[in-house]
Amino acid sequence: MKEEWRYIFSKGVFEGEFRFMEPMKNHTSLRIGGPADVFVIPQDPLSLRNLQVNFKKMQIPYFPLGGGTNILVKDGGIEGVVISFKSFKRIEVIREDNKYVDLSVEAGTPLQGLVNFSKWNGYSGIEGLTGIPGTVGGAVCGNAGAFGYEMKAVLISVWMIDAEGRLERFKAEDIDFGYRRSGISPAELLLSAEIRLMKDKKEDVSARVDSFLKEKRKRQPISAPSAGCVFKNPDGLSAGKLIDEAGCKGMRIGDVEVSNLHANFFINKGEAKASDFIRLMEKVALRVKEKFGIVLEPEIRIIGRDA
Length: 307
Ligand code: EPU
Description:
By secondary structure, the protein is α+β, with helices and mostly antiparallel strands. It contains seven helices and 17 strands. Helices cover about 25% and strands about 25% of the residues. The site of uridine-diphosphate-2(N-acetylglucosaminyl) butyric acid has 16 residues, from helix 6.
C-alpha cells in the first residue's frame, strides 16, 4: 500500500472498510462499471470528514456514491476514491405534533426503507416515490420524483460536510433545486436530511403507496438491471413516448437493450458494457432528433474513464 493511503486509513483517523480496484458493477443498479481505484465505507461522520480533508490536501479526487442507481460508470472505472454511505442509515423522529412529523434520515438510508417507514406509520408526503431505487442522499441530490411527488417538497434541511470540511446545515430553500437536480455538488458530502411529513390514516397512505407501485410495475421494468430513466423529459413531453414513437423499443447494442415496456429504460441483458450503453444512447437520441427535431438530454450521470 502506498504511504499516503497508509496514513489516510490509519487507526484514529479512519474507521471503516476500504478496498482497492473495486469493480463498480457490484455497486450500480445497471451492473455496469469498471473498477474504482479505491472504494471506502466510512463508519462514522468523523471518519468521513477526515477522509475528505485528506483527499483535498493530497488532491485525490473523490466521488460520493448514493445507491448507484442513476449513474453509468464507464468501463475504465473511476479515478480516485468512491465513498459509500452504507453505514449511515438511521431514521429518527425528531419532532411531532398532531399534524406533522419531522424525521432525520441519514444519507445512506435506502429510499424504499424510508417509504416503508412512512407507510407503516401513516406519514404522508412521499407515497409517489415508491419503487424508486437508491438512497435518500441520492434522492435529495437528484431531487428524485414521480407521479407529481418530489423530494424537495418534503425537505426541511440537510446536514453536509462542505467542500472545505466544515459540518454545515442548509435549509431546503437555500438549495437550488430543479427538475431532477439540486445545487449540491459532488464535493459536498450529504450526511442526513430532515424532512416533514403529514400524519394521515395508515390505510390511506398504504393504499396510495400500493397503487403507485402497481402502476409503476405495469409501466416500468423495475426489476430488470437498469439506471431508471435514461433521458430527461423535454418540456411537456415524455422522453419514453418519443423514443417509443421513433421505433426504438427492443433496439440493442451488445447486451444493452431498449426496454419493450418503457422505452426510456435501457436494460443490461447480461454482460453489458458502458461503451455499448453510450452508443445506444447516441443512436436513440439521433433517431428522436431525426424524427421529431428534439434533442434528448441524459438524465443519468455518466462518470469515470474510458477503458
Ligand atoms: N409512453 C409510451 N411508450 C413508452 C413509455 C411511455 O407511449 O415506452 C407513454 C405512456 O403511455 C404515457 C406517457 O408516455 O402516456 C408518459 O409515460 P409515463 O407515465 O411512464 O411517464 P414518463 O414521463 O415516461 C416520468 C418520469 C419517471 C417516473 C414517471 C412516473 C422522467 C424522465 N421520467 O416518466 O421517472 O417514474 O414519470 O411519474 O422524469 C426516472 O426518473 O428515472 C423515471 C423513470
